[in-house]
Automatic annotation (TrEMBL):
Residues 48-103 form a coiled coil. This is Shootin-1. Residues 1-45, 369-398, 417-482 are annotated as: Disordered. Keywords: Coiled coil. GO terms for biological process: neuron projection morphogenesis; positive regulation of neuron migration. GO terms for cellular component: axonal growth cone; cell leading edge; cytoplasm. PANTHER family: SHOOTIN-1. Residues 381-395 have a biased composition (Pro residues). The keyword Coiled coil applies.
Amino acid sequence: MSTTASVKYVATPNGKINNNSSIPLRKPLSRQSSTVSSPSRIPVNDPAHRWKLKFEEAEERRKQLLTEKEKTLRSLNELEKKYMNLQIKHEQLETELFEKNEEFTRLSTASKNLYKEYEILKNQYETETRAMSGALKDATQWYKENKELKRKTMLLMDKDAVDEGVDAGEGESTGDNDIENLNKTIKQLSAEVAELQTEVDQLKQQEFQTTEENVKLGEDLESERRKTEKLESKLGDLQKEHNQLLRVMEMMRKELEEYKQKEEDHRQSLAALKKESDAHKRERNVLAHQSTLILQGLNDSDNAGDYMMLLQEIEDLKRTLEDDRNKYEEEINMLQERLEEQQSFPPDPQVEILEERLRLAESELVSAQQRVEEAEQRLRCPPPPPPPPLPPMAPQAPLRRRRSRLLIDGGATAAKQLEEGQTLSEQKAEPSAVGGTPEKKPAAAVPCANEDIINAIKSGQFTLRKPKKEKENKDKEQQPKAVSELLNILSSLRRAPKKRQSQYIGDVQL
């Protein structure tokens, strides 16, 4: 798994961060009355930092998913091992059952044969005993009948001895033959009855055995059915777990690809940010060099304190602007995050109110940015050319004081008119200087300049500051806080005299 390219930052002895660049940093200036701009910090709402945090969270989540995947794979392997062991045990039990069944069939066949022989012998004994009892009964009956017949014959012997003797011999011979025939038929019938009885007993035994076998087979079938249902349920659970693991692996693969794509995009964005940071660093070094040159030039000039105060004021204004911009960007990001969180829920009137507030804040931010840009453009405009130097004369000092006051109170138009009046006074003073009366020039120039200013005020070209303040107070009451702060900054810039504005406007962007 590829990791994000870490950017190494090395702290220099000056306390500033150096990205191992070959560009030498400027030396810290000894600030007498000015402040050098602090190094740019990474703001809290930096997208690279946020993406880095998101990537770290995604990496932790991926590691957790990998650990869960390993656990599930281990559990799956254990279940597969258990299933294989159970399958081997099942096969062993099946072989044992088959052997036991074979032994049972052998013993059952042997017992059946013995039982059949026993039943045959029993039936034969019963039939023989029944036949013998029947024969004894018949013999006794026949014996009784024979005695009765003998008595009758003894009674008839007196009538005809010859005939009776012949008849008696014939009767005895016929009776013996009948008895023999009856005994034979009895034996045959008893044998047939014994055979039929043995067959009936065999059929009953077979029926009983078949019923027992059916009951056993039903029980075995039910047990096997339960076993198969249990195995099918286990197999279904294993298949579900396997399919779930496959789905989880597919989802993890997709997430891994997405994370790889995000990491690649993040890497590209980091490379672009690195290029931008290098460009900004080069620009900062160039601007720092320019600022050193400007500060050296300002230190050499006469009005060094005013210029340094102006630069410090511009730097403070820029910092406040950056703080306000960062604050509004953070508020917009927070509102956007809340809006994204609220989008998952059903619409709410509070959400609409927040959206309207967000739109108003964005419009106010856009208007404030436009005003800031206008103010920066005004600051970038070159100041008016300075007036030609006047001869160092004492009476002209109040004119300069009045000119500075008019510049502060009247603005740029008053300054232009004052310069025109001053040039007119100088033009009037030149012929007198040629004529040889240099001492009366200041006295003539001052009333002319004052008269021009008075005429300009009477004509309405100058505006008083009081209604302007009232208008600004009304605007402050109507406009939000951030816009009022920007207007205060712009008004403070407008109140500053033109001679204090630096012609190196590039320092504002530091």
